[in-house]
User: What shape does this take?
Amino acid sequence: MKRYYTTDEWSVIEEGFDPTFQEASESIFSLGNGHMGQRANFEENYSGESLQGTYIAGIYYPDKTRVGWWKNGYPEYFAKVLNAPNWIGIAVRAGNEDLDLHTCKVLSFRRELNMKHGYLERSFIAELKSGRQLQVNTRRFLSLAADEIGAIRYSVRSVNFEGTLELLPYLDANVVNRDANYDEKFWEILETGFKADNAFLRMRTRKSGFEVCYSMNCTAEINGTANKAKMQPVQRSGYAGFKIETGINASDEVVLYKYVAVLTSLDHKPDSLVDISIDTLMQASGRRFDGLFADHAVQWDEKWSHSNIVIKGDPEAQQGIRFNIFQLNQTYTGRDQRLNIGPKGFTGEKYGGSTYWDTEAFLIPFYLSTEPDHVSRNLLLYRYKHLDKAIENATKLGFNQGAALYPMVTMNGEECHNEWEITFEEIHRNGAIAYAIYNYVKYTGEKEYLAQYGLEVLIALSRFWRQRVNWSDVKGKYVILGVTGPNEYENNVNNNWYTNRMASWTLRYTLESLDYVMREHPMQYQQLVNKTGFRYDAETSAWNDIIKNLYLPLLEERGIFLQQDGFMDKEQRMVSELSPAERPINQHWSWDRILRSVFLKQADVLQGIFFFEDEFTTDTIRRNFDFYEPRTVHESSLSACIHSILANRIGEVEKAYELYLRTSRLDLDDYNKEVAEGLHITSMGGTWMSIVIGFGGLRIKEGMLSFTPNLPRKWKYLSFIVNFRGRVLNIGISEKETEVKLLKGDTLQVEVNGKIVNCKL
Ligand code: BGC
Assistant: This one.
């Protein structure tokens, strides 16, 4: 396969400039630091195809819903992550000509995303229409050490040009979203100005009322000495910059340093935003570019020290996993319980930047194993804090007595998805939220979480399931009708095995958690009863009855769990029968044809088997895998990872490897031809799982870490780092042995291939 980006273990590199890849590269080379993110747009003007993208965590716009046929229960708005004002811009003019890579000749071009230390570099030589040649070298980063700061070093060297070079670093709030329902302007400009040597912009988001302040400070050097020439302020509405004009000769070099602070009213009082922003900026620019960068690089070293994965013998796989880990670490740092992770993170507008079940089902394990516990705990608390809204949401749909339905898509706890088959039917998301609580408690051992927060959520979820089932006289069982499972290629189905399984498991786990909290934390239990009006006898006996009598569809003769009622009535075809010209089917087939087909978008029954694998024998897992995988088109980015893990579980390591490459290089190799829209950030958690849980075989068995590794043929060595209950461990796997090394923390026993091993410092 011809790859566009050069394979390198710590970097992604683009050699040569192909404008048809520009939007894809803007996604691939994105930077972020948890507080904000930036697509790899060029600093200088670019008139070719480009998706300008600057995103600030937690800043969104409630874009009025647009639907063809309104249904009661639809939300009023779809939250949109905002393309925020441009902070990277530096216009360059040589004589009377603009530097624009779309209109000039690009004689050489190289772009590198350095994942080890989190920066983006670009170097090129451009020939303008007049024949003037400029060589440009840039580096930029979003500081991980001071997350409100971004910095750029932009150097321009004249190759053959003599005359006036003009650099114009600026801030610009005149930006739009590509994805906007009514082409509205989302930003209101409040102030544009200069204070001391700094430029600033203050703006407010319309409707949602978030205030944001940018401030900018610049310095320039000519041939290594500070430029004394005055920077002339340039200002118009929503735009503030400095013009630097200098006469240069061939081989002179001008270096511009641009520092920007990005502050929001989520973290600061609106009326002091400008002052605090300028203080923050002054502190940062005082460190100078190199000092700021050194602080930033230390933070990246620290991150990698507890999240790195090494694969020997397979550079593509190595680059793939580092890219995934790097992007996850750029997107969420766990510092704020109000923040979460959108499917595209900070790399595009699609999916509105909102939270989906992806967080609970695909991301929690990554943050649990690679970060201190508070990071995943904050993701859980995000949902805990939205419990009232989830109860309100369920009430709006006709449920009562404290039943909660969490939104399918949300920013602040309110549902903002507006397709009935998803909003009202994809209720399995409630199950993932319960499962994340279980996962957290199982991994960290922090059972008290249940008493403090977890049980309250579980009770509300169980109340929902109780009201969502109904008794079927025909089946003599409880049933759950009219749902969409994880497989969104069919809607409004009855008794989706996965949804039913999640429902009955949630009821069981709630009962177990109740038991624990009543016994160990009676005071908190009493407070919970007072708060929720919980009626132990009535509610638990109803839940027990559902657990005993909930219908779970089976295809007995084949020994498999059945996707949903009537699944076998479909024409049973295999994905291998589809021609390449029909793939992906969501771009080539009518929706009607997809709905009637047998083809699955992503793991559904298999998603349930993945969650509860302890409850099934290997034979059962194999039978289900062999049945469903050949019917799965993997057109959700969340699909290949789960299949890879299960393939490993049944000993099909090479199949697991093939699926691993697909998940880990999904964006780098642009499998689905859509990377221009942004990266698949949430599926990256799945990629991590397919290594650590899949090939590494990590499990938690009765509170003990356990590993049963299995490497694909190509890999000579695999190592990964996990955090576990205050320890940091490195697991090194070669063909001959598996070595578990304790890097930090108290002595610990772990299980390796069935044997207990003592790990000491
Ligand atoms: C998947 C969902 C997922 C969403 C956001 C869809 O394509 O089918 O399961 O939640 O993308 O990632």
Notes: Residues 343, 351, 356-358, 486, 488, 601-602, 636, 638, 682 surround beta-D-glucopyranose (CB under 6 Å). The first strand starts at residue 6 and ends at 7. The domain at 6-298 is CATH 2.70.98.40 (Beta-galactosidase; Chain A, domain 5).
